[in-house]
Amino acid sequence: MATFQAQVQGMTGLTISSSGTVPTEAHLSEFLQVAVTEVVDAIINARPTEVAKFSQTSNSTSSIAQTGRIVSVMREHDSTSILRPCDKIPASSRYVATESDSLHYRSKYNPAFYILDGNIHAVPAAAGGDNDIVVTQVTYDTGVAYSDSSVDYFPQQYEHLIILNASIKCLDAKMATYTHTDEDSELTQALAGSIASLKAQYNMGIPKPSAPQPQPQRQGAR
Prior knowledge:
The protein is of the alpha+beta class. The protein has two domains: 4-51 and 142-205; 69-138, no CATH class. Helix content is 32%, strand content 16%. The strands form two sheets. A four-stranded antiparallel β-sheet has the order 1-8-3-4, with no helix packed on it. Strands 2-7-6-5 form a four-stranded mixed β-sheet, with no helix packed on it. The longest helix is centred in the C-terminal third of the chain and has 24 residues, at 182-205. The chain is elongated and about 80 Å long. It starts with a helix and ends in a 17-residue tail after the last helix.
């Protein structure tokens, strides 16, 4: 498959190189990384049921850095095959949740989790001996670059939206370099038309929110 650089160049007609062009390859890498976040968020906001397609599961004997929307948090119970679902509690309750005589106490049988300083922690605390915290969450590919041809933690069916999003950003960057001479005004108008066309394709590609399902009426209801 062609690299993202080749695909964006083909879509925009721009030349993108390591230096001397607008945008450069470094700019394109930044645009792609921003595009990943924007596309993922747009899709899962419109279709929350799609969240699993952008998620990754990881485990740890301590804590796990939060990368995005949390799908689930589990805690092993002395076995990798016994996973207890964790309820979310405020970080302010993390100490009382460890006190056995507290109403907020959490044991291995009903664990909880809290978020503090960007990290996800389990209560009881994750530990060795098959007592890991196991987190499934949205994960963004923050290392995607112009020379890549795929995005990690991202379904192929939506990758064209990354190309469209990054292409729009590249054309915006190019247009910003033009002055207000007559010649540049013509080029600006041409780029504006291309941007409008790509934006229309991009907006069409973002899934529309699912319509709410009608609730069946109970018998006897009027």
